[in-house]
Amino acid sequence: MVLPMSRATRLVPELPLLRRQVAAADDDEPEPAVPAHFLCPISLELMKDPVTAPTGITYDRDSLEGWLARGRATCPVTGAPVRLGDLVPNHATRRMIQDWCVANQAERVPTPKVPVADADAAEVLAAVSAAARRGDAAACGAVAARARALGKESDRNRRCLAAAGASKRLSSAFQDLAGEPVDGASVSAALGKILAALTVFFPLDEDSRRCIASPASLKTLVSVLAHGDLAARASAAVVLRELASSADRPTVEAISRTPGACAALVGLARSPVSPQATKAALVTVYYLVSGSDRAAARFAELGAAHVVAELLVDADKGTSEKALAVLDGVLCVDAGLQSARAHALVVPVLVKKMFRVSDMATEFAVSALWRLCRTSDAGAAACRADALRVGAFQKLLLLLQVGCGGLTKDRASELLKLLNGARGSVECIETADFKGLKRPF
Hints:
Layout: H1 5-27, E1 50-52, E2 58-60, H2 61-69, E3 88-89, H3 91-103, H4 118-134, H5 137-153, H6 155-163, H7 166-177, H8 185-198, H9 206-212, H10 215-227, H11 230-246, H12 249-257, H13 261-270, H14 275-291, H15 293-301, H16 304-312, H17 317-330, H18 334-341, H19 346-353, H20 359-373, H21 378-389, H22 392-402, H23 406-420
Antiparallel strand pairs: 1-2, 1-3
Helix pairs in contact: 4-5, 4-7, 5-6, 5-7, 5-8, 7-8, 7-9, 8-11, 10-11, 10-13, 11-14, 13-14, 14-15, 14-17, 15-18, 16-17, 16-19, 17-20, 19-20, 20-23, 22-23
């Protein structure tokens, strides 16, 4: 039987509509309800690693350990005393949860790894110390890598290893191996693994900082920073940042006086190995130049102003703030001023970063520009002319209108007075970007 044309044409568009309606009906099916005994009493979410307290109540491990870490040494349900070491894995409940997830086509809960016990943590760290005392670099590096892997598995493992003295043991191991020649592949690899493990257990305590800040350790740390593989250099930069940011002035001075330290930090900023390493190097440089004019002059001689200016062109927020802080610190000495004024990109990039990154970046940019323009010599006059060409006058006016306080307001006002005297002889560029400017790279 042949259908009439009008009826056949009506069936064609109805078929996809029918399929869409069936699919919509499938999507509207309610999700299966999670059994109440599979939910953690603290988070009210499906438990991934159920553990049972001495009170008989089962919780998710992360939730209960977080509860105990906040100083609440009681069972959340019953109020009875509970200690971290009293928790027992509930394997039966975990298997029931996994079976339920498979039966209901839910995301399967993976089998959790067994957390590190106090005795296991002590054994691993003792092995690190023993291998370092024997001078067995390969064994020491292998055990340090295991400690790092265990610490990164969970916060509970990290806290357990930290309580067992991980930072002190690793720092002592690094100090013990510091006298060995870093040129050897096994020693270099072991030192890199020790430093990588040490980054997991920040912040360093006083004893750990003392070990890393010893002359032999600093010399070896700088050697790894300059000549190690990419991962080792990144770890060395992070450890050096931790040391510089939490140490006293004599330690910061000792870092700056370590042969090759300044050159290695500038080299890491010039040829980055990772964003984390670059930021760590910039923070370390900031602390060094803030603590000593001699260190600031040394960084200026190494071309830190040029490196930072080129780094700022496409830097993200965190890198920009740290790089501007470094540049402002280097400009505190005459060598830094001369070096920065000789680079065509310094003034434009400072003006560009105003209002584009953050309040902190704007403060450092205004301070650095003020240092470049405040004197009456020819170099400062050239900087004032460059600043006017790229729109610094308009940005400073806007900054004062929007509002800024303290030292930034004073320096912005002084900069406006300095730039106003040169406005008649300079044609300003309306935009504050790099259009029409010749980059040196």
